[in-house]
Amino acid sequence: MSVNLEKLKNDLFLRACKKEETNRTPIWIMRQAGRYLPEYQKVRANSDFKTMVKTPELATEVTIQPVDIIGVDAAIIFSDILVIPEALGMNYEMVESRGPSFDWTITEENDFNRLSNSDLEDKLSYVFKALKMTKKELNGRVPLIGFSGSPWTLLTYMVEGGGSKNFSKIKSLIFNNPNLAHKLLDLISETVSEYLSLKIKYGVNAVQIFDTWGGLLSPDSYKEFSLKYIKKVIDNIERKDEPIISYAKGIHHSLNGNKVALQGNMDPTVLYAKHEVIKREAVKVLDSFGKGSGHIFNLGHGILPDISYENAKALVEIVKEESKRYH
Ligand code: CP3
Questions:
Q1: Taking the alpha carbons of 32, 34, 36, 40 in that order, is the dihedral positive or negative?
Q2: Ligand 1 atom with least separation from CA of 62
Q3: In the list 97, 105, 277, 289, which could disulfide-bond 161, CB 3.0-4.6 Å?
Q4: Ligand 1 site, residue 302, Cβ cutoff 6 A
């Protein structure tokens, strides 16, 4: 039997993605496998981040933790968007309390030739092993989500070399050498399509494309350097009916219509508040979507590491209960 023909015990998340009827709103939380969970910290105490990402047993263990501990309606594979630049030939370190840092960056035309997307399945075999193992451990309890960075967001890291204050390097590239930017975005798009197709082949039930840095661009540049390539990726993913979620941070100027399901969008800092306030704010989010299908509850950005996991758990319980009235 193909893994994708499995019977899921809880398919609310997938049904909501397809705008099918559900008896409540499903919820999962971005960065749900992370430092706010004491059980994650325990695993992390013995292994650095990249070791966890590259060891399928550890990736599986922390992927399943939020399903067991806070009761979310979907699992998302523990990994990082930076595995793609790495597979293309750019090594990175995850520096403690500073974030990612690449050992070289793209600065000129010739750097294109240092990148290669051959043998992706082989280079990223640790991800696919983790997916297989996670599917087995989940045993159909909830769907599994796979993800990638958007071409634009990945290019931003490859040019900036890590986090940035003003993104001057990537902004200079698009103004001074747009042809090189487009050539790189084409290569990354091709790689991301293949990567997400492979994730689906290895059993994920949906994929999410993180466009964390699309919001840096003006509406016109956004269309030219980000949206165009997200569309390209989506057109080239080999899939049956696996939903694709586009995470667009700070792109309110380019969003409209209600043809697709909506995921989001509670302010992550609400989780610092006490339970009554969390409830009030969660209900506001449910209210703003209104009655009917096609809403997946989530935060607007990843859960912060110093949030108490009890508050995350309370949010999940609140959404499960309060959302019934909207269906
Ligand atoms: O959501 C999940 O639980 C799945 C795992 C996941 C991680 N990163 C694990 C992680 C996902 C989906 C990501 C995506 C990701 N990674 C994005 C896009 C989403 C977003 O946040 O906008 C980006 C931009 C990255 C790159 C990245 N990874 C940065 C900038 C950092 C450092 C900042 C930080 O939060 O520490 C990471 C590290 C990272 N990725 C951690 C986790 C759990 C923390 C690592 C640790 O344990 O120290």
A1: positive
A2: 3
A3: 105
A4: yes
The helix (H) or strand (E) run that includes residue 169 is: helix 168-176
Spacing, Cα 325 to ligand 1 middle (Å):
34
81 lines ligand 1 (CB under 6 A): yes
Taking the model in full, what pTM does it have? 0.96
What 8-state DSSP symbol labels residue 263?
E
> In the chain, what's the furthest Cα-to-Cα distance?
58
Residue range 188-202, pLDDT digits in tens: 999 999 999 999 999
Contact 281, 273 (CB under 8 A): yes
What is the tens place of the pLDDT at every residue in 69-81? 999 999 999 999 9
Q: Does the pLDDT at position 150 exceed 50?
A: yes
Give the mutation target among 58, 80, 301 for probing the ligand 1 site: most ligand atoms within 8 A of CB. Answer: 80
Among residues 122, 215, 128, the alpha carbon closest in space to that of 170 is found at 215
Cβ proximity of 135 and 61 under 8 Å: no
Strands (E), the chain: 75-76, 92-95, 99-102, 144-149, 206-211, 244-248, 262-263, 295-296
The H-assigned helical ranges of 56-150 are 56-69, 83-88, 120-123, 125-138
User: Residue 132, class by beta-carbon neighbours within 10 Å (0-12 exposed, 13-18 middle, 19+ buried)?
Assistant: middle
Ligand 1 pocket residue status of 94, Cβ below 6 Å:
yes
- Phi first, then psi: give them for residue 164, nearest 5 degrees: -155, 155
For 79-89, letters b (16+ CB in 10 Å) and e give bbbbbbbbbbe
